[in-house]
Amino acid sequence: MPVQPDSPPHIELLAEIGVAAQAAGGIDNSLTIALGALLAPAPSAGLSLELSSVFIFSARSIDQRMDLVNKVFDLRFAHLFALHRNANGRRAAEFLKKLKGLILNSIVVQKWVRNLAAHGNVDLTSDVPRLIPAMFDLEAKQVLAKRGANFANGLSASQLKELSAGLSRSTGHLTHFGHATQTFIQWFGASPDLFLSQVNKLAKDMNVAELHLHDPTEGPPMRQARSSHRP
Q: Helix 192-205 to helix 157-187 angle, to the nearest 10 degrees?
């Protein structure tokens, strides 16, 4: 967030705290989109944001909200997970689940940044203003201590900016996951290429190997060969 060149040093830090808070707020919005795709009553219904927002914002914590998305995902695609392991539907659902797990894990790892921006204090006693954890925020204190001397006294504006960018990337991935899930539900049977294009774009952005499906015109998927060797 740009600030005036002649502004007091702590203004830049305050601006970055606002950016971090906005990035943290994106977590709930992205979870609402993901859950909305899963709760759509019919493939043609699209996102069910009104219903999903009720569930998401009724939960007391981010952990509960993520757990809700995980459980609904498993229930929505239970019939696909029961298919043969080489079936396209199962492999696509498992790939989505893999991406979801990576995204939610990254948010868990970065959750301390959200808490620090929401509850931290600005320390003006040093030459460089820093955001320091609240007295009760033991997690942020532990994370900063593990990051070394440059972080031991809190976060500078530039350090917070970098961390906020990482959190924004994760929430962006979660939003993309929600839309890919919607496409999977709506179009996988009729147009799998549309789903593949969307989900593989997300995978590439996350540095994950792309999903490749079996061509139905080539006959049933082949079983993986099993070794006859026994120890």
A: 160
Cβ atoms of 213 and 88 closer than 8 Å: yes
Q: Which residues contact 87 (CB under 8 A, 6 or more apart)?
A: 80, 221
- The partner residues of 123 in beta bridges, in order of sequence, read 130
Which residue in 78, 104, 73 sits closest to 175, CA to CA? Answer: 104
- At residue 230, the pLDDT reads 42
Distance CA 157, CA 19 (A): 11
From residue 17, how far is each of 115, 122, 208 by CA, in Å?
Answer: 11, 10, 31
What is the distance between the alpha carbons of residues 135 and 146, in angstroms, rounded to a whole number? 18
How far is it, in rounded angstroms, from Cα 134 to Cα 220?
59
| pLDDT tens profile 18-59 | 999 999 889 999 999 999 999 987 666 666 788 899 999 999
Q: How far apart are CA 135 and CA 17, in angstroms?
A: 18
d(CA 153, CA 131): 8
The two structure tokens encoding residue 64: 């509960």
> Any idea which residue has 């019919």 for tokens?
42
What one-character DSSP code corresponds to residue 225? P
User: Residue 123: which H helix or E strand, with range?
Assistant: strand 121-123
CA distance linking residue 224 with residue 221, whole number of Å: 9
- Could you tell me the pLDDT band of residue 191, with boundaries at 50, 70 and 90? confident
Distances from the Cα of 120 to the Cα of 14, 30, 56, 116, 133, angstroms: 11, 24, 25, 5, 5
